[in-house]
Design goal:
Blueprint (H helix, E strand, L loop, with lengths): L1 H46 L1 E2 L18 E2 L3 E8 L7 E9 L5 E7 L13 E6 L2 E10 L6 E3 L11 E8 L2 E2 L3 E4 L1 E2 L16
Keywords: Signal
InterPro entries: Pilin-like
Organism: Acidovorax delafieldii
């Protein structure tokens, strides 16, 4: 009788341990999905409206006249901060991965075409911790078929799309592909009066 009771107790303890481990795995998966939805949604919102304003001060020969800079592991651009995330308006942005494994967005207010952003006095907000890798790809849609590259070296236009791949300790996220919609008032391809907030 005691042996049977002991076996039942062992079976119950094992079942409870299995249930607890399953619950922990589900919690981790739900947290990962929530992080993915939140971060990717935020990135899409701030990358969805970029400015094609050019730097009004002289740039080095062969350098891009745009504020946009696309590297394999970081990206700088001018865009619009959605009002729901704080003070709306035009900002300089920089997205990068820190040595501590944190995906960070730096931002500082736009001060005109002659002002280069001073990141030392800008603000930063951590978007995601536990990041083990961050890579960017940039689409050139001016060629057929469109080509993707790990950095943006073309100086006479901006990329059509940006692809962001985030790797974390729990796995690689689905690729985040964002079309870069240029603000009408800053697009050199447009002409004539433009009304609205640009």
């Amino acid at each position: 009788m005691l042996t049977l009771l002991a076996l039942v107790m062992v079976a119950m303890a094992s079942a409870l341990r299995t249930a607890s481990q399953t619950e922990e795995r589900v919690d981790v998966r739900l947290q990962r999905m929530d992080d993915l939805r939140t971060v990717s949604g935020f990135l899409r919102s701030i990358l969805g409206r970029v400015s094609a304003q050019k730097i009004s001060t002289p740039v080095a020969a062969g350098a891009s006249p745009y504020f946009f800079q696309g590297a394999a592991s970081s990206m700088n651009w001018v865009g619009v901060m959605p009002a729901r995330y704080g003070a709306g308006g035009r900002y300089h942005f920089r997205l990068e991965l820190t040595d501590a494994g944190v995906l960070v967005l730096h931002f500082t207010p736009w001060e005109g075409t002659a002002a280069v952003p001073d990141w030392a006095v800008g603000q930063s907000t951590p978007l995601l911790a536990g990041v083990t890798g961050l890579t960017f790809q940039y689409e050139d849609a001016a060629v057929e078929p469109p080509e993707w590259s790990a950095s943006w070296a073309i100086i006479d236009r901006l990329p059509e799309k940006v692809s962001i791949t985030v790797q974390t300790s729990s796995g690689t996220w689905p690729e985040i592909v964002v079309p870069l919609r240029v603000l009408p008032g800053s697009d050199p391809r447009t002409s004539g009066p433009v009304f609205g907030g640009t």
